[in-house]
Amino acid sequence: DDMPNGQRRIKVEPRLNPNASWTLAMYMIATLFGFGLTALLIWTSGADVLKAFMTLFDGAFGSQKAWIASLAKATPLILTGLATIVAFRAQVWSIGQEGQVYSGAMGAYLACLVFAGLPVGIYLSLIILSGMIAGAGLGIIAAILKTRFGVNEIISTVMMNYLIVFLLSYLIGGGPWTEVSSSVVYQQSARIPDAAQLPYLFGTTKLHIAFVFALIAAVFCYVVLEKTPLGYEIRAMGFNPVALAHRGTNIGRTMIIVMAISGAIAGLAGVSEIFGTSHRVRVDTLYGFGFTGIIIGMIGGLRPLGAVIAGIFFGGLETGALYMKLLAKVPAAIVPAMEGILLLTFLIAGVAARYKIVRVNTND
Q1: Do 133 and 140 form a contact (C-beta atoms < 8 A)?
Q2: Does the predicted TM-score (pTM) go above 0.70?
Q3: pLDDT tens per residue, range 258-289
Q4: How far is Cα 164 from Cα 161, in angstroms, rounded to an integer?
Q5: 32 class by beta-carbon count within 10 Å (0-12 exposed, 13-18 middle, 19+ buried)
Q6: 206-227: buried (b, 16+ CB within 10 Å) or exposed (e) per residue?
Q7: Greatest extent of the chain over all pairs of C-alpha atoms, in Å
């Protein structure tokens, strides 16, 4: 040691200006490592590893049809990833994106019933707006509980996730929204009328206009976070809320705005899935988008462009995994295991990209 009686210890420090090349390298290593572990799993199952990966790529991005399917799968993931970014950049640790997705779908479906008969343009606009308001409302409740009563946002948002799912289960599991035939009661709503369905793009029957909404939302988040006074407050709130409060900013108001924006974007994800893809409300259709979106936002480095790229990657992974299972005869259990492995390796890469290990000398 250079210092007398000094000891050397390891310390983890954040990188003040993360290097883009280093970040890219970390994610490339994570991708290789993740696929390497997946290859080991596929090999132990007895399936052809090379064929499995070839069908995975072909199913994800190997054709125009595959791209369209992957972008359709990516749409709700991009939106929930963006919802995560808005909240987490302010260090508001909301885990409520899952419930806000459900809430958005429920608010939109209620509007679908209430405003039926209006001209199509107005009808669709009210449906989308209602879904976003419903998602924002759930976020605002959590913000008020935090600012007025000191309730931790992690606890409140997780609890509201359960409450909203149970409410939807009642509504479509014997409640007023349940589809009933002459002899069977289904755990789902009736099919959404054609006038309420989101229009498709490029003459397809998979990719709908919500993908455009997701890209617009990404641009909106970038502009708000990086180019506006509100974005400065959000970022400053994430760095040092005490200093921001001394500057004269109303922290409670900023938090409510943050959670309203985050909830509205997550609510839009629920609208996109129900009114663009499944065309009926079901609990299992919406499951997991909010939780996966949290990971998408983290993998994207809490940047809107990163969320778009990560969402498209995992949308393609989900589409390609189905092809891999069907054409390469890979056991069904390996598909979610592969997704979990890649998510974990990307999270580790994200940490490695934003933090560094240094050695420091200390005196006894």
Answers
A1: no
A2: yes
A3: 999 999 999 999 999 999 999 999 989 999 99
A4: 5
A5: exposed
A6: bbbbbbebbeebbebbbebbee
A7: 87
